[in-house]
């Protein structure tokens, strides 16, 4: 296969738009899906753990493709690879839209994972190939694409649920794919006749099995995490197996049988750990927030969609300010930026843990601005520290590895948040239900109050209203527990940033 032009001649706004379209696709789809998770589960008759299995299937399929990203790019050329991925992503969207059972939905998400794996990495590698004077603008547009895609997800998802139904979460992706397809002609091609060795099929199969088994065990953890130590041991062994297989495949891919790749130094490894933690929190937030805002706080669907987009739109503002400071060389050091981002996360978690059903919507918007600041500043600072020592010729492989970490973190965020929410909700509901009795004076007062406010309702109807309120209170307490945990994670991140000296 003959070599093609490495990159289109010239640097144009159309080229930036093409990169933004490719980079945003996965974020639009995932944003819509996370927002409409409850509706999708109801539509296909899936339990929360089955919904998280779909996230696992997506991540596992994406990881298999990412391990062969470089090989596919050199065999097909980036342009053809992205076009083929667009078709696979669209096919997966159609399968999900037509799904009538959890199994069919999981299969559709797996096909989407095969297609969606390339978009994020391909767009970022394209930006890295720009000349230094243009790279800053390219990076800013790349970041804008991620934030805009994530912000559009809940907005479009809300409109789909309000005017159509949950299937349009996936049908609605097809126009974006049609719009992106002709834009791919602006991407580089770079097909090569001399190809590196691809990973063997059995190694990839073992890797997929290890990742799936580790995350499946997360779903099987009982509410009492220490009542079955053998389950925890199995989880640990599954994660270790996944890590060892990933290491083996990565070394073989780098052509260095006994050593890590040259770029895998301590700053890079610390950066991967920070990336993992950030994407884990963002994924869990994206799952928990719609549940809290709709089910616990009682906001309607359009308002919830607008609220959930606030964090990502705020992230654009924070990213612009940070980029302007970098351009003027007046930005604080990486350590200070990471500490500022962690402080925003800690404040966000602390204040969200105290939110009540009577919360003012403006106060909630202000809290979501803090979350947007954390996401934007933390990821930008970590990206600077992680890749500054990576040579240009090693960047594609280093970013491919980082994107594998991202897929694992997103999938584990969904799996972990479903387990956490189910466990805490069951516990809180049980405790609150202990007072749901005529022997409780507060219960009597509540029933009398409802009788005064709604005199035409029978006793059974009033009890049903109280039972609904009981469920809402249990869900609110569960979500508040999540944000308390997020506050503690922020504190641990602060200690990590203060302890390490790699991002000075």
TrEMBL record:
Gene3D superfamilies listed in its UniProt record: MFS general substrate transporter like domains (1.20.1250.20), Multidrug resistance protein D (1.20.1720.10)
GO CC terms: endomembrane system; plasma membrane
Keywords for the protein's UniProt record, in alphabetical order: Membrane, Transmembrane, Transmembrane helix, Transport
Pfam families xref list: MFS_1
Localization: Endomembrane system
Protein name: MFS transporter
Domain Major facilitator superfamily (MFS) profile, residue spans: 15-504
Chain segments annotated as transmembrane: 12-31, 51-69, 81-100, 106-125, 137-162, 168-188, 200-218, 230-247, 268-288, 308-327, 334-355, 361-383, 404-423, 482-499
Molecular function terms from GO: transmembrane transporter activity
Lineage, uppermost ranks: Bacteria, Pseudomonadati, Pseudomonadota, Betaproteobacteria, Neisseriales
InterPro entries tied to this protein: MFS (IPR011701), MFS_dom (IPR020846), MFS_trans_sf (IPR036259)
Membrane topology listed for this record: Multi-pass membrane protein
